[in-house]
Amino acid sequence: MTAHDPKLSADHSNEIGLYAKRKSVFPKAIDGAFRRFKWLVMAVCLLIYWGTPWIRWDRGPYAPDQAVLIDLGNRRFFMFNIEIWPHEFYFVAGLLIMAGIGLFLVTSAVGRAWCGYACPQTVWTDLFQHVDRLVDGDRNAQLRLQKAPWTASKIAKRTLKWGLYLTISFLTGGAWIFYFADAPTLQYEFWTGTAASVAYATTFVLTMTTLIFGGFMREQVCVYMCPWPRIQTAMLDEKSLVVTYKDWRGEPRGSVKSAIKAATPLGDCIDCMQCVAVCPTGIDIREGAQIGCITCALCIDACDKAMADVGRPRGLIDYCTLDDAEKEKRGEEPTPLLKTIFRPRTLVYLGVWSGIGLALLFMLGQRARLDLSVAKDRNPEYVMLSDGQIRNAYTLKLRNMEARPRTFNVALDGLDGGAMFTDEMDAAAAKRVLTIEVPPDTTKAVRVYAVLPRGAKPADFAFVLKATDKDGGTDRGGTTFTTAEGNGQ
Amino acid sequence: MANPKIDDATGVETVGHEWDGIEELNNPLPRWWLWSFYACIVFSIGYCVAYPAWPLIDKATAGTLGWTSRGQLDGEMKAETARRASLIAELGKASIEQIAADPKLRRAAIDGGRAAFKVNCIQCHGNGAAGSAGYPNLNDDDWLWGGDVSAIHQTLVNGIRQPGDDATRISQMPSFGRDGILNAAQVQDVVSHVRVLAGEEKPSASAQRGAQLYTDNCTVCHGAAGEGNRTVGAPGLNDAIWLYGGTRAALTQSITNARYGVMPSWGNRLDPVTVKMLATYVHSLGGGEEAPAPAPEEAAAAPAAATK
Fold first, then answer.
1. Cβ distance of A388 and B236 shorter than 8 Å
2. Could you read off the pLDDT of B246-282 as tens digits, one per residue?
3. How far apart are CA B114 and CA B109, in angstroms?
């Protein structure tokens, strides 16, 4: 990974080559408004990622007390006071659709803000770049060390740096598994070697991906692997905010000294290369919008600082829409920021996004926490008893989705003159309403025999499930009763 | 190639083909691809040595690891047997009544019985145990030899009318018509009476004549009112269920030639645990009866009544 001399490749620019060797990026530390915002976003993201599994949430004695838990073994998804069963997976699908449209919304309004601030690849790359600075020093020291021979000091520094990479990667990969099991228990099991092998395998895979993507591949993931930048080229329009070098103000560039000597007045850009030095993906923003730009805005911070140093106004590099760039070139007033952000396209995205969100919330409020499904025995379809009664068998599945035991009444709707009993009951005790207790958070299968007197006709009817407690709730399962003459359908 | 043609733009040799001015460069294979290819070759050699690979006349080379798909299945079956060993041992120790009284054992026995039924029983009794003419429906509440779990178990173990099994369920109905005990008209009269007993016909002169013949010839086994007798496997004639059919033709056939339904004694064919599981499963199909009043030595089995 030797640094490529840009001048050298410029001399051979007529060479045909589809392969470009990676140029190592050693971004310089910078302070400024956007850097501080990036710090904040990074802190919040890491805190959410590492902290969430450890939040406790009391759900009573029958459910786990972890606030966010994807319980694959029991097929339950817990998120604070929401519990999702597998058949309610559309809630998760809805959230994913919202996440997708949310990306559209953010992209069309403020460009690649996701890439620049919140994407895990960005957050972890940023973290690893800080480790580089901590161990090796800032950009120039890193460059020197890169070219330096392998002395004891370099070996020590590399060992320390890669050790820190590995530690961070392990903490990252290891934190993931806590979303899938009770975190304190799994933590104990993990270190005592009693956790499930999938926990170790997952930790290993995610440790390695974090190490490789964040520690070594870095901006190549964004430029070559990630589909999102390509999609974004379609999502961005002339009203999206992108990081823009205002070439009409900056060009022709030249240092302060050469500006004094120059025959014609030069632009504001003093060609200090600070915007290139701080760029985490190693691009030159002055060449215009490009796929490597994740709009992290660190070059804005760098340029603002340089402009302040030479006493020129800030914003030579700034967030700016293509429309505004054209206007500014013509010397017109740019569109106000709010008007840029709230325009029909973003409002439509916002409408769709919040519409789905409201629909999900509405469904969440409406969903029933009990359910009945009926499966009729098809072999045999009916049984003739010795006294001539006809018996049909059904498997009822009573689903109690509450974290407490509930008592349900199951009644016959229709099937006049009929009665039913379960395989736990005596046939003589058959009646029209059965009372069944279902344990918390459980689907209970009950085998029910329904009987009609001798000579009965086929009929359609339904089982009706009703909760007996004050919260109530009801469901019904329609089915049919078969005799020798056929079934009711 | 003796005189390789070099592409001007890239300085790479071409393969010498040309299609409408388009030439193919003879670039070397990517290294990663080439090494993966070599690695695959090495792997395949190792694989051919270790696993069955080369087809010969009557079998394939065995491979040094000795792996076979049958061996793998055998291992899996052994592991499954080992996994169930403790449960099977428990079922083996428990009596059929104890299994019925223990919810955990009963559930295990029903599941095992369902599987064994599919292998051994559905040929006659049907996939849903609904039977057919001559083969009893096991879902209903009509039992020839008794419907409590012990009686079902005994029927399974010793079979029905199995020569060579001293404890087999055995009885024989005379062939009233064929052996000349009753003449054809008398048989028809008995048929009429039996159909009246079952409520399938209105009383008639023929039925009245049949009543006396019935009392003389049939009551001993089938009971005065046609209630049947389980000790001799005599079916009830006054209920809605007919094993061989309740039409006049079917009944004429039954009385003329008699019936002689048989079932193998499964005690000789299956292991005791499987037979217990089958009995428990059949008992669970919806017609199983409570055990009769406990025999003196089985007074402790009374709580069994609570489970069914």
1. no
2. 999 999 999 999 999 999 999 999 999 999 999 999 9
3. 8
CA dihedral A145, A147, A152, A154 (to 10 degrees): 30
CB contact under 8 A, B140 and A384: yes
At B299, the amino acid letter reads A
CATH number belonging to the domain at A370-481, selected among 1.25.40.10, 3.40.30.10, 3.40.190.80, 2.60.40.10: 2.60.40.10
Q: What class does CATH assign to B184-257?
A: mainly alpha
With contacts defined as CB-CB under 8 Å, which chain B residues touch A449? Answer: 286
Q: What is the pTM of this model?
A: 0.71
Report residue A259 as tokens. Answer: 């500006």
Of B126, B236, B240, the CB nearest to A388: B240
For residue B192, give the nearest of B209, B177, B180, B175 by alpha carbon.
B209
- pLDDT tens-digit map of A404-446: 899 999 999 999 999 999 988 888 899 999 999 999 988 999 9
Q: State the Cα–Cα distance between residues B215 and B229, nearest whole angstrom.
A: 15
Chain A, chain B: beta-carbon pairs less than 8 Å apart: 52
Cβ–Cβ gap A384/B240 under 8 Å:
yes
Chain B residues closer than 8 Å to A16 by CB = 9-10
Q: In this complex, which of A16, A380, A449 lies closest to B128 when CB atoms are compared? A: A380
Q: Mutate one of A384, A389, A446, A451 to test the B interface: name it (highest B CB count within 10 A).
A: A384
Residue A112 parent element (H or E): none
Check if the beta carbon of residue A319 is closer than 8 Å to that of residue A300.
yes
Q: Does domain B87-166+263-293+302-307 have CATH number 1.10.760.10?
A: yes
* Whether the predicted interface score ipTM is above 0.85: no
